[in-house]
Amino acid sequence: SLASTAITCFTRGLDLRKGTEDVLCPANCPLWQFYVFGDGVYASLSSVCGAAIHSGVITNAGGAVRVQTLPGQDSYPAVNANGIQSQVLSRWASSFSVTAGTKNTALEAVGRSVSTARPSTGKRPKKTLDKKAGNKDCKADIAFLIDGSYNIGQRRFNLQKNFVGKVAVMLGIGTEGPHVGVVQASEHPKIEFYLKNFTAAKEVLFAIKELGFRGGNSNTGKALKHTAQKFFSLENGARKGIPKIIVVFLDGWPSDDLEEAGIVAREFGVNVFIVSVAKPTTEELGMVQDIGFVDKAVCRNNGFFSYQMPTWFGTTKYVKPLVQKLCSHEQMLCSKTCYNSVNIGFLIDGSSSVGESNFRLVLEFVSNVAKAFEISDIGSKVAAVQFTYDQRTEFSFTDHASKEKVLSAIRNIRYMSGGTATGDAISFTARNVFGPVKDGPNKNFLVVLTDGQSYDDVRGPAAAAQKAGITVFSVGVAWAPLDDLKDMASEPRESHTFFTREFTGLEQMVPDIIRGICKDFLDSKQ
Fold first, then answer.
1. Which of 100, 132, 156 is the last residue of a domain?
2. What is the mean pLDDT of the chain?
3. Per the structure, how many domains does the chain have?
4. Which stretches make up the LCCL domain (predicted)?
5. What is the spatial distance between Cα 289 and Cα 212, in angstroms, rounded to a whole number?
6. Quick one: which H or E segment has residue 485?
7. Which domain range does residue 60 map to?
């Protein structure tokens, strides 16, 4: 016979091209991962090696198998044999049977199964523990956004499910490994299951298999936006500090616009990948709303986040490269957002002209800005310094690792009352508050709040702070001279300088300050 083709545990009958083919099954395929339909005659959707073990042609030690393509059947029975439970399937377009093959020894099976990819220690119990934990080297919370539109149709939808199942298995899902969920895009998006629902590959595979095809327009943009906003909440199982990823599967092209959804996903710190299958042909391009739909939706248009497969057939070879991308922790450029990757220091004027009740309004303003950010030991951090002629560090960046604690610390700041030396206060804050974090991963911002003329020079200290990588926003109230405010602010000064006559006007500025911080953060990342 001709040389056998080495296949993987997951190769299905329909992945083979010839009428009769000699293949080599690898050893140690995990039995519970096999999809087998029928008995003796198997639906071409079945795993070839699974069918071979089921029918007794080989054992789990692998071996040579001859696969014969047969016509489709009206029904395939479910039979339990040799440790594999085959499943019922009504009508399938083609089938195959398996017999013992002749092994060409020169060709050992290269189709390493998932379980043999890691060297076995020979101690069984240890392995089962590891399996539960999953692949700890792959840190990811992933939503598979699958195409459930009429574009793809029932048959290719099933192939898509199969592919997603293989990716899920190869990822090494487990309590300490990747977690996955699935959202189906059609007319309206439907979250099929969340990250928290399953932590074992076996359960995920079963859930994927149970998914029903919805049909409808392929409103991928709508589904992407919905997933970015709703899927990754802590109560739905998203984990702090783990990259959030959406893998969008698109057969053909979307019916709606992806641009806005891409922006929302980036704002929410989600890394969007697009797997496009059967890209629009030249004739079809006229029907596509926006030819650049992939570039607008992905996290970064650098080639890493887009992935193409010509068809849904024979996709096994595409599984591993995709899994490798999804596990590349350091490439997830969209995980950092202005909300979770900034240090904001507030420099608060405590001089006598402010007065106790206005000082409360200042603290309320500080709270409202701080509230917008994701404050944690691995996220954004907030510090506050109050100044008169003297400076007092109310709390530093490392004092409070949660939003609740920061907000309560702001509430507890006591009004000092005294003179105004803003320049000194900026130097003090740059040195003592920002100094210790200057080599950290977060971008540094200083918000200076003052209601009057400073007794000392502000321009020199502000320029030194900016040189040290601190972006300065100046917020003036009442008698604060505009020249001082502009001298302190970072470039472009217009967008970093704020002024209000009354302390009550601070409230309206909150969204502008937050937006300003986010804009600077994004500009620094380009």
1. 100
2. 88
3. 3
4. 3-96
5. 28
6. helix 482-488
7. 5-100
pLDDT digits (tens, 9 = 90+) for 377-386: 888 999 999 9
Instruction: Assess whether 379 and 441 both reside in one domain.
Output: yes
Strand intervals (E) in 310-350:
342-349
Distance CA 354, CA 451 (A): 7
C-alpha to C-alpha distance for 388 and 348, rounded to whole angstroms: 9
Q: What does the alpha-carbon distance between residue 36 and residue 24 come to, in Å, rounded to a whole number?
A: 18
- Determine the Cα–Cα distance for residues 500 and 479; give it in Å rounded to an integer: 10
DSSP-assigned states of every residue in 3-38: PPEE--TT-BGGG--SSEEEEEEPS---GGG---BE
Torsion angle, CA of 199/80/37/204, rounded to 10 degrees?
A: 0
Q: Which residues pair with 90 in a beta bridge?
A: 75
- DSSP letter for 132, please: H
pLDDT tens per residue, range 413-426: 999 999 999 999 99
Is 460 inside a domain boundary? yes
Domain boundary among 331, 357, 381: 331
Buried b (16+ CB within 10 A) or exposed e, 297-307: bbbbeeebbbb
What is the DSSP secondary structure assignment for residue 69, as one 8-state letter?
Answer: E
Instruction: Write the pLDDT tens digit of every residue in 168-189.
Output: 999 999 988 999 999 999 999 9
**What does DSSP say about strands 470-477 and 497-500: parallel, antiparallel, or unpaired?**
parallel
Residue 213: both structure tokens together: 């095809």
Backbone angles phi, psi at 181, to 5 degrees: -145, 170
Asked if 132 and 172 count as a contact pair (C-beta separation under 8 A), the reply is no
Does residue 450 come out as left (phi exceeding 0), alpha (psi in the -120 to 50 range) or beta? beta
Do 415 and 509 belong together in one domain?
Answer: yes
- The CATH number of whichever domain residue 370 belongs to comes to 3.40.50.410
- Alpha-carbon span 55 to 47, nearest angstrom: 12
Within the chain, what is the greatest distance between any pair of CA atoms?
96
Mean pLDDT, rounded, for 113-127: 39
- H or E stretch covering 48: helix 48-54
Q: What share of the chain is helix, strand, coil (3-state, %, to 5)?
A: 35, 25, 40
Does any domain span residue 107? no
Q: What phi and psi, each to the nearest 5 degrees, are found at residue 206?
A: -65, -45
**Separation CA 162–CA 167 (nearest Å):** 9
- Residue 357 counted as domain residue: yes
User: Does 126 reside within a domain?
Assistant: no
Could you tell me the sign of the dihedral formed by the alpha carbons of 325, 330, 334, 339, in that order?
positive
Residue 198 to residue 143: CA distance in whole angstroms = 13
Residue 327's closest CA among 113, 172, 160? Answer: 172
Phi-psi region of 312 (alpha: psi -120 to 50; beta: other; left: phi over 0): alpha
Banded model confidence at residue 255, pLDDT cuts 50, 70, 90: confident
Q: Rounded distance, CA 451 to CA 352, Å? A: 10
Closest CA to 151 of 163, 143, 160: 160
